[in-house]
Amino acid sequence: MEVVIVPDATAGGELIAEAMAALMRRKPDALLGVATGSTPLPIYQALAAKVRAGELDASRARICQLDEYVGLPAGHPESYRSVVLREVVEPLGLGEGSFMGPDGTAPDVHAACEAYDTALSAAGGVDLQLLGIGTDGHIGFNEPCSSLASRTRIKTLTRQTREDNARFFDSLDEVPHHVMTQGIGTILEARHLVLLATGEGKADAVAHAVEGPVAALVPASALQLHPHATVVVDEAAASKLKLADYFRATYAAKPEWQGI
User: Fold this and answer.
1) One Pfam annotation, family name (predicted)?
2) What is the domain-level CATH number for residue 69?
3) Which domain range does residue 167 map to?
4) Exposure check for the chain: N or C terminus, fewer CB within 10 A?
C-alpha cells in the first residue's frame, strides 16, 4: 500500500481533499464513500472551501455512508446519517437525493444491511472510500476478528469502541451497542481506499495495519490486499512505522502530478 506521511492533520486533509476533487473533475458523478468521527473533518472542510472558492463543482457527486448506529431515532444529531448530511452533503451544496446509507431504524436490520450492500453495487460501486482506523485496528465498525470477506451486516461494538465514541454523547450509556457497517469484503470493492490517521494514539494500529501480517485481529491490515490503497498519516501516527524514512523518500520522489 501507499503510505504518505504529512506534517499534521490539516496537511492530510488538504492532500486527500485534492485527490477527491481531482476525481470529481474527472468523473463528476463519482460515488464517494465517507467516514465519520473527528479525523476526517479537515478533509470535508478543505473540500467545502474549494466549492466556496469556485475551484470545484461537486454538484453531481454522490455520497455513501460507511456505517450507521442501530436504534437511534431518525434525526438524532449523532446518527451517522445526520453527521454526514451536516458535515459533507450540506457544505458541498448537495441535496439529500445525492446521499445513500443504511437504515439504522429499519425493523429488519439484516434485510436493510443486505439491501444497502446491493444498492452500492447497483450504483456502480464506490469510486473512493475514506476510512479511519480505531485504536484496535478496526475499519468501519469491523471489530478485531471480523471476517476479511464480510459484507454489510450488523455488529456488536466492543466496550473500547463505545468508550472511544462516548465523547460524542452525553454519557457512555447513550452510545448504542449495535451498528450496521460495510463489511471488509464490501470495503475492498471500492476502487480507491484512502485511510487517514492522526495522533500518537493511532500509531500502534497504523504500524500493525501497514507493516504487520494480514490478520483478522487487525481488520485494517486487509488494505494490504487492495490494488490501490493509500494511508495518509501525520508524524505522530507514523511514529511506530519501521519504514517511515522509506515512505517519506518514496513520496518525495513522486512526480507532482501523481498526487495520491
Assistant:
1) Glucosamine_iso
2) 3.40.50.1360
3) 2-253
4) N
State the DSSP H helix or E strand holding residue 153, giving kind and residue range, or none if neither.
strand 153-156
Residue among 68, 103, 143, 164 flagged as catalytic: 143
- For residue 162, give the C-alpha cell: 463505545
The beta strand positions in 19-143, using DSSP E, are 31-34, 62-65, 67-69, 99-100, 128-131
Whether residue 67 lies in the annotated active site: yes
Take residue 226 and report the three cell numbers written for it.
Answer: 487492495
Q: Which of 68, 87, 127, 136 is catalytic?
A: 136
Tell me whether residue 164 is one of the annotated catalytic residues: no
For 93, other C-beta atoms within 10 Å of its C-beta total 14
Tell me the pLDDT of the chain (260 aa) as tens digits. 899 999 999 999 999 999 999 999 999 999 999 999 899 999 999 999 999 999 999 999 999 999 999 999 888 999 999 999 999 999 999 988 999 999 999 999 999 999 999 999 999 999 999 999 999 999 999 999 999 999 999 999 888 889 988 999 999 999 999 999 999 999 999 999 999 999 999 999 999 999 999 999 999 999 999 999 999 999 999 999 999 999 999 998 886 656 78
Identify the CA nearest to 104 among candidates 78, 138, 74. 74
Sequential DSSP letters for 135-179: TTS-BTTB-TT--TT--SEEEEPPHHHHHHHGGGSSSGGGS-SEE
Catalytic-residue membership of 57: no
Q: Are 136 and 220 in contact (CB under 8 A)?
A: no
Catalytic annotation present for 136: yes
Split into its structural domains, the chain has a count of 1
